[in-house]
Write a structure and sequence with these properties.
The protein is α+β, with helices and mostly antiparallel strands. The chain folds into three domains: 29 residues, no CATH class; 110 residues, DNA primase DNAg catalytic core, N-terminal domain (Alpha-Beta Complex), CATH 3.90.980.10; 51 residues, no CATH class. The chain is 38% helix and 19% strand. It contains ten helices and ten strands. Strands 4-5-6-7 form a four-stranded antiparallel sheet. A three-stranded antiparallel sheet has the order 1-2-3. A three-stranded parallel sheet has the order 9-8-10, with helices on one face. Strand 1 and strand 2 form a beta hairpin. Helix 1 crosses helix 2. The longest helix has 20 residues. The radius of gyration is 20 Å and the shape is globular. The protein starts with 13 loop residues before the first strand and ends with a strand.
């Protein structure tokens, strides 16, 4: 029994049954399971609440590894002109926006060596999906966007700049709408198709824009906010 985090009170009325994973507030009335609590406490829809809990369960070591990978790809973007040229072709040229979104480039051939010097094993890199079965960078020849939720990287999106299949993600949770934790507090939201559309709009000052990492997930946003614009 403790003070309820869902409303102000001076006497404890919030009860948690840890064995059954249930809660109930005798003061304001809500009750349910862990997912229901996240929905109420963070004001998130069901699928966003699931994604948030998945992100919370990501081991710290994996999260730190992905931070190292993103920093490495950002450095490669400065070293290899083909990545910067592709961003320019897609209308993204403002360095502050590129840096804020953590965009990088994977030229291939040196990620495994770099991570090995930091102490990461080949088995871990294979398990996460950063390295393929041939020992090569799985995102070779792609512009990289880190997919963050509540400050932590939960996945990477790679867009091919050549003839390879356009889209690649790590085989793990993709999360919900991009930057939803900040965008959801605005009075209206602009929903766009993909990450490049979002980046160009942010570059132009439309900070209330969001998108799904994969097509189709944008349907979630119609349940998440009452005022939303679809930009095509």
């Amino acid at each position: 029994m403790g003070l309820c985090p869902l409303h102000r009170e001076s006497r404890p009325s919030f009860y948690v049954n840890a064995c059954k994973n249930l809660f109930y507030c005798h003061g304001c009335g809500p009750g349910g399971d862990l997912i229901g609590f996240v929905e109420l406490f963070l004001n998130l829809p069901f699928r966003q609440s699931i994604a948030h809990l998945q992100q919370e369960l990501v081991p710290a070591s994996v999260s730190q590894l992905l931070e190292q990978v993103v920093a490495f790809y950002q450095l490669q973007l400065q070293r290899y002109s083909e990545g910067a040229r592709y961003l320019e072709q897609r209308g993204l040229h403002y360095s502050a926006t590129i840096e804020e979104l953590g965009i990088g480039y994977a030229p291939g051939g040196n990620l495994r060596r770099h991570l090995a010097t930091l102490g990461y094993s080949l088995e871990l890199l294979l398990d996460i999906g950063l390295i393929n079965n041939q020992g090569r960078d799985a995102f070779c020849g792609r512009v990289i966007f880190p997919c963050r939720q509540y400050g932590q990287i939960i996945n990477l999106y790679g867009r091919s700049i050549g003839t390879a299949f356009p889209h690649r993600l790590l085989p793990r949770s993709k999360g919900g709408l991009v930057a939803w934790d900040s965008v959801s507090h605005t009075s209206s939201v602009i929903l766009v198709e993909g990450l490049f559309d979002l980046a160009v709009l942010w570059q132009a000052g439309f900070r209330n824009a969001t998108c799904a990492v994969l097509p189709g997930a944008g349907k979630l946003s119609y349940r998440a906010t009452s005022t939303i614009q679809s930009a095509k």
